[in-house]
């Protein structure tokens, strides 16, 4: 059953507690500190993005209070790491805390391990019906997100230690965006986990995150992908800071929907078999452990709806960026073409849902097939095709 939050009557802003406002003030203070210390490295648009992020993240923290502790933890760990560097990148191998925990590479490795452990505990909790196992899996997932974001923040700082001409937001290559994908997918799952008060979906959603972690570890070892390199000219733009995150909110939520679709298909198939055998609904292995088909269908729909909105924004931003970088809004580059295919696929899914009442196994299979299309657009294009986006090749 969906959790319904009841708030006192009155205007939304007047319902905020003093803790809410202190959180907003802390965000504003952090943005002011960043502008004062790093403003010289920012352009006008970048400063605008930073300022606009304050009310956005304040509203997020007001709506989803669990994320406040996450933001605080990221700030504490990232600032601790930055202070330990003393402006010298070599200290990453000299200071114990940096070498084994807080340097970007170490933090991301810890993130990877925690996601893998989280997957095991979620599955252990599902198979044994153990609330303890699922609870541990959830805490490990939160910890992985914390260290992943910390690693990204520290990597951002490390890039500037290599040189002001090298410094850039760490979302410019496959290594960095795979980390981003893991964290976005996990965060959206954790939101639905809390909203619907069920941890059973984690066993399925964490599978796609673990697959991404597996690729990330292989890519790091086989290609030394963790190395921080200067940006190619096409990526030296403030557009990257908003286009890529919007894009990967889409990728992450589409992947989440697909894995929830897998859970839906398993429960539905089991329920059909039980019905044919004259058994009682909800008595099967998956049916007795996973949420209802109605809830799974709702999560699948909401994930695709959110992902489609952000993917649409990302596509528009990408065309504006392309006009600035290459002189045209659209060039039918393989990456652009497959992005359009992804967009059309989910536009059709939502159209059928809203206009024709698409539900059930067809919707779940479509969401799963959508993951294959999205994966090719995300990774396959970089592996097998070439074009203007070839800077992301393996």
TrEMBL record:
<feature type="transmembrane region" description="Helical">
    <location>
        <begin position="304"/>
        <end position="326"/>
    </location>
</feature>
<feature type="transmembrane region" description="Helical">
    <location>
        <begin position="169"/>
        <end position="191"/>
    </location>
</feature>
<keyword id="KW-0201">Cytochrome c-type biogenesis</keyword>
<dbReference type="GO" id="GO:0017004">
    <property type="term" value="P:cytochrome complex assembly"/>
</dbReference>
<dbReference type="GO" id="GO:0020037">
    <property type="term" value="F:heme binding"/>
</dbReference>
<feature type="transmembrane region" description="Helical">
    <location>
        <begin position="69"/>
        <end position="87"/>
    </location>
</feature>
<keyword id="KW-1133">Transmembrane helix</keyword>
<keyword id="KW-0472">Membrane</keyword>
<feature type="transmembrane region" description="Helical">
    <location>
        <begin position="45"/>
        <end position="62"/>
    </location>
</feature>
<dbReference type="Pfam" id="PF01578">
    <property type="entry name" value="Cytochrom_C_asm"/>
</dbReference>
<protein>
    <submittedName>
        <fullName>Cytochrome C biogenesis protein</fullName>
    </submittedName>
</protein>
<dbReference type="InterPro" id="IPR045062">
    <property type="entry name" value="Cyt_c_biogenesis_CcsA/CcmC"/>
</dbReference>
<feature type="transmembrane region" description="Helical">
    <location>
        <begin position="140"/>
        <end position="157"/>
    </location>
</feature>
<dbReference type="InterPro" id="IPR002541">
    <property type="entry name" value="Cyt_c_assembly"/>
</dbReference>
<keyword id="KW-0812">Transmembrane</keyword>
<feature type="transmembrane region" description="Helical">
    <location>
        <begin position="107"/>
        <end position="128"/>
    </location>
</feature>
<feature type="domain" description="Cytochrome c assembly protein">
    <location>
        <begin position="172"/>
        <end position="389"/>
    </location>
</feature>
<feature type="transmembrane region" description="Helical">
    <location>
        <begin position="248"/>
        <end position="267"/>
    </location>
</feature>
<dbReference type="GO" id="GO:0005886">
    <property type="term" value="C:plasma membrane"/>
</dbReference>
<dbReference type="InterPro" id="IPR017562">
    <property type="entry name" value="Cyt_c_biogenesis_CcsA"/>
</dbReference>
<feature type="transmembrane region" description="Helical">
    <location>
        <begin position="203"/>
        <end position="221"/>
    </location>
</feature>
<feature type="transmembrane region" description="Helical">
    <location>
        <begin position="338"/>
        <end position="355"/>
    </location>
</feature>
<feature type="transmembrane region" description="Helical">
    <location>
        <begin position="362"/>
        <end position="385"/>
    </location>
</feature>
């Amino acid at each position: 059953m969906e959790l319904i939050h009841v708030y006192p009557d009155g205007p939304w802003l007047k319902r905020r507690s003093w803790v809410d406002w202190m959180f907003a003030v802390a965000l504003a203070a952090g943005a002011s500190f960043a502008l004062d210390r790093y403003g010289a490295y920012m352009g006008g648009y970048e400063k605008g993005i930073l300022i606009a992020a304050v009310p956005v993240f304040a509203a997020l923290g007001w709506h989803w209070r669990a994320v406040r502790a996450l933001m605080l933890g990221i700030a504490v760990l990232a600032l601790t790491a930055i202070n330990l560097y003393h402006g010298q990148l070599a200290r990453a191998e000299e200071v114990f805390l940096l070498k084994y925990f807080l340097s970007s590479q170490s933090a991301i490795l810890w993130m990877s391990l925690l996601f893998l452990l989280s997957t095991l505990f979620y599955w252990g909790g599902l198979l044994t019906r153990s609330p303890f196992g699922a609870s541990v899996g959830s805490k490990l997932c939160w910890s992985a997100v914390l260290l992943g974001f910390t690693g990204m923040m520290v990597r951002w700082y490390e890039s500037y230690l290599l040189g002001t001409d090298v410094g850039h937001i760490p979302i410019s290559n496959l290594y960095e965006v795979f980390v981003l994908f893991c964290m976005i997918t996990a965060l959206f799952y954790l939101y639905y986990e809390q909203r619907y008060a069920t941890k059973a979906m984690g066993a399925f959603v964490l599978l796609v995150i673990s697959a991404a972690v597996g690729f990330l570890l292989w890519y790091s070892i086989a290609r030394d992908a963790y190395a921080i390199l200067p940006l190619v000219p096409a990526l030296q733009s403030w557009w990257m800071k908003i286009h890529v995150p919007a894009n990967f909110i889409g990728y992450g939520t589409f992947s989440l929907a697909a894995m929830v679709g897998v859970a839906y298909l398993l429960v539905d198939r089991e329920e059909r078999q039980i019905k044919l055998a004259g058994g009682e609904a909800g008595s099967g292995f998956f049916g007795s452990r996973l949420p209802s088909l109605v809830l799974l269908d709702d999560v699948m729909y909401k994930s695709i709806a959110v992902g489609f909105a952000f993917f649409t924004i990302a596509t528009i931003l990408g065309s504006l960026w392309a006009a600035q970088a290459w002189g045209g809004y659209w060039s039918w580059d393989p990456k652009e073409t497959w992005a359009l295919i992804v967009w059309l696929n989910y536009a059709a899914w939502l159209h059928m849902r809203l206009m024709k009442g698409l539900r059930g196994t067809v919707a779940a299979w479509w969401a799963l097939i959508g993951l294959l299309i999205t994966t090719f657009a995300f990774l396959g294009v970089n592996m097998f095709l070439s074009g203007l986006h070839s800077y992301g090749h393996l």
